[in-house]
Design a protein that fits this description.
By secondary structure, the protein is of the alpha+beta class. It has nine helices and 34 strands. The longest helix has 17 residues, at about 10-25. The model is unreliable at about 1-20 and about 555-560 (pLDDT under 50). It comes from Phytophthora cactorum. This is Concanavalin A-like lectin/glucanase domain.
């Protein structure tokens, strides 16, 4: 191992570079109201700039009045009994400011926006008058709180966000207008405009946070791991790399299902937590010093509808130094579900996933359960940063067979591979809180208000360009058919061909999502609903009537809008009775399923393929 002493300087340096990149383009968001006290408060006064945190009023609640996004910045004008540490929280909804992780961790932000909604800053006399920025930008938020952790007091000259989305304080300046006799309708339209301006991004507006060099490999900030698309199919392998902790710890991901964007095995290495770099609010319960923590799922903490499981904590047999390179080896036997972790040549754990005390159902996500196969990635927890370099994966059975290799020194290669590059197109995302997640369905109805509100055709066109780059030419489906029809890109001949092709997707009461969807899969009224609209626009009434008459009656879940193409039936009838069971069966030649039954007092069960 080898020690260096330049890493800590990068924390503020990278933030300063990012601040300059976007400032001229978008400007800044500043709070509209502020409340000082000891707990978060919605009862704020007009924000005019300077404010002080002290023992009597240790917490400031900032209200931006509407959804904003960008890189947080702070300018302190005085510090008393420093160093002063400030814990900052960000949230879309006010109640989240009272939660440990605010409204995070967010699982749809990687590498650019911060998936952690809590961060810490340290101020000394050296920072007075300087613009201190966060390492990572924050996705959509309205609320922000600053809490005094250490020191006597601190006075801020100003705080805010270097905007990563368009700054529009006055909606009357927009090219689109809406006015009606109903004030509530006017407010609904305004809300839609706000949602669009926060969720739709200009090209190049999201600034990368990863950087690479020949000496230190790649700098990785403490957020949800960036995942390598080149390693999507790794199985039965030995992963080797060098890792250096700059502050707090480093995170490593294996077994990630890249195609489904789900699950993964999370590994966290904690340093010895030296006083000069360790914040006072560090979570030593979740990550004790000099340990490796193992988890299954998206993260080490639960998020909405996504549960993560801590599988174990293991002591490292030495003090893990910061600013020191350590060789790391992870041996993965996907067949057996066996994972062995070693650092600096010393084994820390040797486990089998199926023997960790959790059920297969728990260690799975929507039917998928990895036992080690899948992609790798690098990240970290709140306030952490690290370096990684010289990453290789070789076959578990043949060390001479190299499955993957990346020295992590070429930024132009590393950043795009791990999903951390700036957005090449203007795009509309699935809400302002996500930095790279695009839903066709949400975009479909968003385009209507984009056109009449902010009038940015480049964001509409950019979203299409982005989506077209990822289309497969060997599969067709309901959504693609619907969007081809509604967008106007298909001529009459093409429209007839793709509508005729729907017969290949017909299953029971509706249409399967794609031509490679298993025919036992639930059918979605969501995607079929978009198709219905498209069919009606072009006069294909037979297909539309088929959906009207069959699909929505078969819905079994309002929450996820799914339809089962199979009907499971159990009938119990008294002895001496008989009758005919009858149900619509669109897939049959007669359109009706009939079965004559005689009562036996025993349960008779059967399955009808609708």
């Amino acid at each position: 191992m080898r020690s260096i002493g330049v890493a800590v300087l990068l924390w503020s340096a990278l933030g300063a570079v990012s601040l300059a990149d976007n400032l001229d383009k978008h400007g800044v968001f500043t709070p509209k109201k502020i409340a000082l006290g000891s707990v978060p408060s919605m009862d704020g006064q007009s924000y005019s700039g300077g404010f002080t945190l002290s023992a009597g009023e240790p917490l400031a609640t900032l209200d931006y009045d509407y959804e904003v996004a960008g890189l947080p910045y702070f300018v302190a004008s005085s510090v008393s009994n420093g160093p002063v540490e400030i814990e900052v929280k960000y949230a879309e909804q006010f109640p989240a400011l009272s939660l440990n992780y605010s409204d995070g961790p967010s699982q749809f932000t990687t590498s650019i926006a911060n998936s952690r909604r809590v961060e810490t800053h340290r101020f000394t006399g050296d920072e007075i008058g300087a613009t201190v920025t966060s390492m990572l930008s924050q996705p959509g938020q309205r609320w922000q709180s600053l809490r005094l952790l250490t020191g006597d007091s601190i006075t801020f000259q100003t705080v805010g966000l270097q905007a990563s989305v368009e700054v529009i304080d006055d909606l009357t300046n927009l090219p689109g207008k809406f006015s009606s006799s109903n004030a509530k309708y006017d407010e609904i339209w305004t809300l839609g405009v706000r949602a669009v301006t926060a969720a739709c991004l200009d090209a190049g507006s999201q600034v990368p946070s990863w950087s690479s060099s020949e000496e230190n490999g790649t700098f990785v900030p403490g957020t949800r791991p960036g995942i390598s698309y080149r390693t999507w199919n790794l199985t039965d392998y030995v992963l080797n790399f060098e890792s250096q902790i700059i502050r707090g710890g480093a995170g490593y991901t294996i077994a990630y299902d890249l195609t489904g964007n789900r699950d993964g095995v999370q590994i966290h290495l904690a340093s010895e937590y030296p006083n000069d770099t360790t914040f006072s609010n560090i979570n030593t319960t979740l990550f004790p010093a000099n340990t490796v923590t193992l988890a299954y799922g998206y993260d080490f903490a639960n998020a909405t509808s996504m549960t993560s499981y801590i599988l174990g904590q293991y002591d490292v047999p030495f003090n893990v130094k910061e600013n020191v390179w350590y060789p790391v080896e992870i041996r993965v036997n996907s067949t057996a579900g066996n994972i062995v972790f070693s650092i600096d040549g010393q084994q820390v754990f040797d486990i089998i996933l199926t023997e960790m005390g959790f059920t297969d159902e728990q260690l799975s996500f929507y039917g998928y359960a990895s036992r080690g196969e899948g992609a790798i990635g690098f990240g970290g927890w709140q306030d952490q940063a690290s370096y990684v370099r010289n990453v290789t994966a070789t076959s578990l059975s043949d060390s001479s067979e190299v499955l993957y290799s990346n020295p992590m020194t070429d930024e132009s290669v590393v950043v795009p591979e791990f999903g951390g590059q700036s957005n090449a197109y203007g795009v509309c995302l699935d809400g302002a809180k996500r930095d790279r997640y695009i839903w066709l369905g949400d975009f479909y109805h968003t385009t209507r208000i984009m056109g009449v509100a902010n009038s940015k055709p480049e964001q509409i066109a950019g979203t299409w360009e982005f989506l077209f780059e990822y289309q497969a030419d060997y599969v067709y489906g309901v959504s693609a058919t619907a969007f081809a029809l509604t967008s106007g890109v298909a001529n009459e001949t093409q429209i007839k061909l793709i509508v005729d092709g729907l017969e290949g997707l017909r299953q029971g009461p509706g249409y399967l999502d794609t031509s490679d969807t298993d025919n036992t899969t639930h059918i979605s009224p969501n995607t079929n609903g978009f198709l219905l609209d498209a069919l009606l626009q072009h006069g294909y009434t037979d297909q539309a009537v088929f959906l009207f008459d069959n699909l929505w009656d078969a819905m079994i879940s309002a929450a996820w809008e799914i339809v089962d193409s199979q009907l499971n039936v159990t009938i119990t009838a008294p002895v001496g009775t008989d009758g005919t069971f009858e149900v619509d069966q669109p897939s049959s030649s007669t359109g009706v399923y009939e079965l004559h039954l005689e009562g036996t007092e025993a349960a008779t069960s059967f399955v009808v393929q609708l």
